[in-house]
Amino acid sequence: MNNHILKLENIHKYYFENKNKLHILNNLNLEIKSGEFISILGKSGSGKTTLLNILGLLDAVNSGALYYDGININELNEQEKNITRNKYLGFVFQFHYLLPEFTALENVTLPCFVQNKNLKNINSIKKRASELLEILELKDRLNHKPSMLSGGEKQRVAVARALINNPKVLLADEPTGNLDEETSEHINSLFKKINTEFNQTIIVVTHSSELANVSQKRYHLKKGALVLK
Ligand SMILES: Nc1ncnc2c1ncn2[C@@H]1O[C@H](COP(=O)(O)OP(=O)(O)OP(=O)(O)O)[C@@H](O)[C@H]1O
Ligand SMILES: [Mg+2]
Questions:
Q1: Which pLDDT does position 119 carry in this prediction?
Q2: According to the model, what pLDDT value does residue 229 have?
Q3: Rounded to the nearest whole angstrom, what is the distance from the C-alpha of residue 92 to the centroid of ligand 1?
């Protein structure tokens, strides 16, 4: 057996615009081991979000294979894909998408309720959420609503929310794209901490060379394929 948590083989993805075929991912290959932290850089329009949506099982490929722990995603039905998504993946986006009427702690616990409607273990869920918020240096902000949090604090709550279901892989699309330099640096160091202290596998798409520099492997998405830098 191989020890890759994620493997992409000869991925092709294209869109049709009028009669033009836009070949966005062109024979793309990638292997990621558990505990790796990789970054993907590339100019605007190079296909980074397209790739992340494919990794997140939010979009399908035109050809090629995607494996999580050796499971071929092409062979799963929609329900099995949802189960795989919940078990394997946590998402962080450029915008935090926190719900304004809930506190930081409540926002972090929400994915647990979406996933299983069993409310019996609410105390252990809350405990895990407050531990995550503490790791993300938000111990004193548990009961603040998003409007009472800074941009960087909101994004850190979003990271905690992405981690609540213990995903095997954390996927982040421009997590610091909307933040100033100093706030970004704090987020960068927290991604590094989550990776090194908790062995969290992370794939981050970014324009920021500072964020890429805290990852272990830097790829550039060029002409539809990944080049290691
Ligand atoms: N649903 C779609 N239909 C047609 N074209 C699309 C679709 N989604 C994306 N594209 C095109 O595919 C290309 C890659 O888009 P993508 O969003 O993956 O780029 P990106 O690298 O994430 O860019 P950015 O850095 O600006 O976020 C772009 O040219 C975009 O216009
Ligand atoms: Mg994008």
A1: 65
A2: 87
A3: 18
Domain count, the chain: 1
Pocket flag, ligand 1, residue 45 (CB < 6 Å) = yes
CATH number of the domain at 104, please. 3.40.50.300
User: What local confidence, expressed as pLDDT, does residue 115 receive?
Assistant: 67
Ligand 1 center–CA 77 separation, angstroms: 26
Give the closest residue (by CA) to ligand 1 atom 4.
15
The residue type found at 187 is: I
Residue 19 in domain: no
Does residue 89 form part of some domain? yes
pLDDT at position 117, please?
58
**Which residue, chain included where needed, has tokens 């993805």?**
13
In a domain, 178, yes or no: yes
Q: Whose CA is nearest to atom 17 of ligand 1?
A: 49
Helix (H, G, I), strand (E, B) or coil at 173: strand
State the residue range of the domain holding 197: 36-60+84-228
Give the residues of the chain that fall short of pLDDT 70: 1-2, 115-119
Numbers of helices and strands, H then E, in the chain? 7, 10
Greatest CA separation found in the chain?
55
Q: Is the CB of 47 under 6 A from ligand 1?
A: yes
